[in-house]
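Troubleshooting log. The previous structure file for this entry was overwritten by mistake, so regenerating from the original sequence record. Sequence copied from the archived sheet and checked twice against the printout by T.R.
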Amino acid sequence: MNKVIQFGEHVEGYSIPVLNEREIRASAGIVFLVMLISLMLILFKGDFLLIKYVIVMFLVDFIVRVFVNPKFSPSLIIGRLIVGNQVPEYVGAQQKKFAWSIGIVLASIMFIHLVLVNAFSPITGITCLICLIFLFFESVFGICLGCKFYSVFYKEKAQYCPGEVCDVKSKQEIQKTSQVQLLIVAGFFACICLTVFLLNDSFSKKPYDLFGITGSTRSQ
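Regenerated output below.
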């Protein structure tokens, strides 16, 4: 029974239960993509059907992770299949459990409003946006925002964080950012703003069909 209901895996060399960060990032990317598509359908078509299914699956998936066992989570299993050939990157399970508990709260808020009550409001919009931000940072940057709050609520220090961010250490030379690099980034954004200012009217024009394929199809 204990092998079925547990949180984290016991790996040799690690004093606490751990999880594979690579699987978690893959799972976060999958959920982020599906939620983003759902949001696009709402914004451009006013279609809430997909987001309701996504919310139910999102909530069930996170309940399984936290209260049963992460290795039985459907999205984490898919993530494992995708990155199964990569060397595991182990992270502490406890802070992930806390972060996923936040996910359950957010998913429950959206489930109550959009699925049970069948209503939308700024509450659902903000909650969905927070979920997307959390998933984006996890999948793209490997930064668990929920884990950042772990030390606020718990006195003990989080162990085995992704990229060893929990350990105080000096940056290696390849990680340092020079003033020239910062100026390049600032100049890049300045060029974007200038481009928008100068070319906005030109870019706003709808492209025409170069080969007339659309027009000929309609005429038939």
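The chain has nine helices and two strands. Archived copy saved in two places this time.
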